[in-house]
Here is the input.
Amino acid sequence: MFFRVTAFALICFIVSGFPASAADEQPGANKPPRIAVINFGANNTGEDIAKIIRNTVEMSFFSKGSFEMLERTQIELIVSERKNQLKECKDEKCAAAIGELLSSDYVVMGSVDKLDKYTINIQVVDVKTKTVVIVDTIDTVEMSGLRNSAEEISARVARKLEKKRLGIEKIDLSFSIGYVFSIPIGHLGGIASTGHGIRADAALENIFIKNFFLLAGLVYNRFPGRVENVDHSSMLPMFIGAGYRIPIWKLHLCPIAAAGASYNSLDYYAYFGKLGRTDRSKFQPFFMAGAGLEMSVTESILVKTDMEYCNFFEKGGSVSCISMMIGAGMRF
Here is the structure.
């Protein structure tokens, strides 16, 4: 019952913190956006390569299932009288004019450039406002990496566009779960051995400023007894906190601080002969601070490891441990 209540509380926190979407405010906003991907430019590389990348981008958007895609043949048929305009289209005004002819909501345009490496550039033009609303770029050293790079950048752009449609383009939501290894210190270390458990948390990222995030989660830790009359101690901290993601190469260093309440219990034997077993349980204030490393495996999947100092404030003094977590999650 307790686990159900805490899980429900975590879900409520995230839902209450999540902003109302534009889809709730605008009639017809649930209709998938109509997307046209036009010809990509080729700078110091072959036009055939640009066509392949353009087709890969179109297929990546289509595979998301969140957009109504105009096929290349449809685009060429509708603007057949303006073939030169379609071929030479390189700015947002031109893209918006073509979008109006196609009755599309957005036009995706871009280029494939080559200097010391290949670079794929993508711009998304809002036809209604005639402005560029999304810009992204990706590099690859070898030609063989172009297709994978095109799929990766397309996934990023599609995700940004979908979030823009929902009115949450600046916010990411992530969930993660992992195994916890905890070393008791101080008084706890005198009565209990190394603990093991599980942790689940959720975060709203890019809150207020880029890379700042709010965090909520819960942990279950079980410490086997070290002395004869203690069977085990268990702790169930529930916390809210904040942190910041610092980019380092392909990783992010994430310092965090959090506070909350922990449901702690000590299961011990009333007699050394182990005839009577007693449980002492209570809620206690809880604080933790530490840092973690996070790496995005794909646009949606991440792996992470954390290390935190945890302190539980008991009436007779504080109880502490150092916790390490390794886990995985998803970002939406």
